[in-house]
Design a protein that fits this description.
By secondary structure, the protein is of the alpha/beta class. It is built from seven helices and 13 strands. The chain binds 1-O-pyrophosphono-5-O-phosphono-alpha-D-ribofuranose and uracil.
Length: about 240
């Protein structure tokens, strides 16, 4: 049982096996991208367990059969860039879902999210928003996205991530205790650059092949500022009951 009541860790062996391959540093860009979709598709089953349905009767070759159809009212909110890799797989299962894009990047020094794109429709038209982002690290990006969605009128928000750090789960849960968080794993901790350890590295770079050289590596040279941000998050986590 987790210390956070709002978190579900999807322990399915196929999810865990796929996640292990994604974590492997030898996995190349093409396979990594495929894995993002495969894991998202598997997680979608668990996450949509409470998805509302409507009755629908169809005719089989032998007569009428009462079945169901998925009610509309779900939207996918991928956080650019890395969340994009989870969208198509989810849409295969829930083709009626809307997709709203939010662009955020994490400032390398302050680790704070910076918003650069927002394509929400004018009015809140759906019941449930699923935030898609493979990594929940400090929790800053997802907490900011929930702020945006709630401010705009979203009724219910769920976070879907492949891997979370305990510091990020604590931050998101404290800021938004009503948000259900679904993850494949909660890892050990953040390193001094705010990367999840052991994690899988930089999910955006691994999906899109944008490696900027050794100085951009997740383990490379923390600044005093990032190390201090992470220290504060770890103190907050330690103070939790
Ligand atoms: C990554 C990741 C999350 C964020 C998580 O995005 O995809 O959005 O960092 O970190 P946080 O929990 O500490 O906020 P990044 O800023 O690297 O942008 P990218 O997806 O464009 O690569
Ligand atoms: N963003 C990533 O892509 N990976 C991490 O470990 C942390 C933030």
């Amino acid at each position: 049982m987790s210390r956070w009541p709002n978190i579900t860790i999807i322990q399915h062996p196929v999810v865990q096996e796929r996640l292990t391959v994604a974590r492997d540093r030898r996995t190349g860009v093409e396979e990594f991208r495929r894995l993002m979709g495969q894991i998202a598709r598997l997680m979608a089953f668990e996450i949509t367990r409470d998805y509302p349905t409507r009755r629908r009767t169809v005719e089989t070759p032998l007569g009428p059969c009462e079945g169901c159809e998925l009610a509309r009212g779900l939207t996918l909110v991928p956080i650019l860039r890395a969340g994009l890799g989870m969208v198509d797989a989810m849409l295969e299962l829930i083709p009626t879902a809307e997709v709203w894009h939010i662009g955020l990047y994490r400032d390398e020094r302050s680790l704070k999210p910076v918003e650069y794109y927002n394509k929400l429709p004018d009015a809140a038209t759906v019941q449930v928003c699923l935030i898609l982002d493979p990594m929940l690290a400090t929790g800053g990006s997802s907490a900011a996205t929930v702020d945006i969605l709630k401010h705009w009128g979203a009724a219910r928000v769920k976070q879907v991530s492949l891997i979370a750090a305990p510091e990020g789960v604590a931050t998101l849960s404290a800021a938004h205790p009503d948000v259900d968080i679904h993850v494949g794993a909660i890892d050990r901790a953040l390193n001094e650059r705010g990367y999840i350890v052991p994690g899988l590295g930089d999910a955006g770079d691994r999906q899109f092949g944008t490696f900027a050289g050794p100085s951009s590596e997740p383990g490379h040279d923390p600044t005093d500022e990032t190390a201090e941000v992470v220290r504060r998050l770890q103190q907050n986590l330690a103070r939790e009951p």
